Amino acid sequence: MTMLRPLSLALALCAGLVPSAPAVALDGIAGPYLAGRQASRFSDYGAASDYFRRALISDPANSGLLENALVAEIGRGAIDMALPLAGRLEQSGVKSQIADLVVLADLARTGDYETGLVALDEGRTAGALVDGLYRAWSLAGLGRMSDATTAFDEVADAAGTRSFGLYHKALALASVGDFEGADRIFSGEEGGPLRATRRGVVAHVQILSQLERNDAAIELIEKTFGETGDPAFLALKQELEAGAILGFSAVNGPIEGIGEVFFTVASALNGETSDINTLAYARMAEYLAPGQAETLLLCAAILESQGQFDLATKTFNRIPREDPAFVTAELGRADALLSDGRVDAAIEALRQLARDNSGRADIWSALGDTYRRNERYSEAAEAYDRAISTFSTEDPGQWVVYYTRGIANERIKNWGQAESDFRKALELRPDHPAVLNYLGYSYLEMNTNLDEALEMIERAVAERPDDGAIVDSFGWALYRLGRYDEAVVQMEQAVELMPEDAVVNDHLGDVYWAVDRKREAEFQWKRALSFEPDTEEEAKRIRRKLEIGLDAVLKEEGAEPLAVTKNEN
């Protein structure tokens, strides 16, 4: 299996769920309405809900207000508050797909499959793809499995939605004990191989175990996640190796099946369309399966991407400590806290997580990254030390920990260890441009190993020719080697790629000075100052170059003078 990805047609079948801005007559409600619209623009669902409800007091039958309020309630996860609004919209005679979505989800939650089918027949819709899968699962809920499988097949046979129909058909078959039929779909014997999702792999592993094929289940885990992959799958693998027969819990009946429909569609839409459309489907999945960790993780990730860090944090917090996804949730919560500017709270969350899971390299590495990004390099190096100490075997994926530890050590002037870390990272990933560039540039700054530095940076440029930082390093290497005319070409390209970077503009100024283009050099140094160099020391050096020129500054610093240029400009 490979990942389920949305096809353009599948997206079209779900598009238009949430209207961009329902029309509203503003007589007497302009203030709260406009405030609600502003809050909605920034995905501040709590504030939007308050403002729209305030406006509804003055105009309770206003369909535009009702729809805006409904969207706000869905966004903040208050489906119990959204349901009455959906009912009032229906009473107003306005057709609303977002209201239909809420009504259909609630019918599923109560197990009223018959009414759900009637609602579809009468024109309610949550998008053509969802409608087809919803119908199939509702038929299964009524015990009409033959009709249900036909309905799943109809979705699978429609253009662009084959994977969706087959995936849900397999889950439905497994939920009624037809594990052989489900395995034929997951393995590709029926309809071609499915694309793998994490939840799909869980389902297939459980199905194989139910068929007493634990060896095949173990092979599937190893093939998908490797020997040292996802901790949750490692735990499943241990159970399988011990001879346990795993129960099928991926989908426990039609209610969870319809919840899986909403989750499947939300996952497919994620990053492909409006965040509120994606969140609406994810919220319906959450409504039908409130404790489903992956759904909560998806909701939280969408909220974080919308800048709703408090809502995201609260959503991450809903995943209990005993859940296999708890560590992932805590890492996500720490990231949301960081994005919200709550650095100390994020660090404390990561430190506690590391204390409780001292053998997890990913946690120590995340803690190290947090320290490093906040320029606490000594603590970062210590955290990376702990991450590396957990490695029992060598793996190419470990390069990033050595690389980031190298950065931390370089920043605290522990160059011997930094160089060793960068070399180890390159041993694991020989052509990684970030490592080649960082080590090569470090050699340039120390004026050592210049030929090797140039060779490393040339390899990095070959990998990422449009990366301004790497092109800057290439130009700087040529400058250090006295190849000024060649350096000009590269530095000018770097400035085109990173026009507002202080370092790149400063470097171009130095290169221009070296080829006697002094007015242009001064212009670039002034631009560099306007972009606020990282440190006052860097800014002071640029100001000094503007005062007395680069040659004099190099002399003051006791550095080697510029080589004699052949450029006559």
From TrEMBL:
It comes from the Bacteria. Gene3D superfamilies: Tetratricopeptide repeat domain. Its EC number is 3.4.-.-. The lineage of its organism: Bacteria, Pseudomonadati, Pseudomonadota, Alphaproteobacteria, Rhodobacterales. TPR repeats lie at residues 361-394, 399-432, 468-501. This is Beta-barrel assembly-enhancing protease. SUPFAM superfamilies: TPR-like. Pfam families: TPR_16, TPR_19, TPR_2. Keywords: Hydrolase, Protease, Repeat, Signal, TPR repeat. InterPro entries: TPR-like_helical_dom_sf (IPR011990), TPR_2 (IPR013105), TPR_rpt (IPR019734). PANTHER family: CELL DIVISION CYCLE 16,23,27, CELL DIVISION CYCLE PROTEIN 27 HOMOLOG. One of its GO terms (molecular function) is peptidase activity. Residues 1-25 form the signal peptide. GO terms for biological process: proteolysis. It is an enzyme of class 3 (hydrolase).
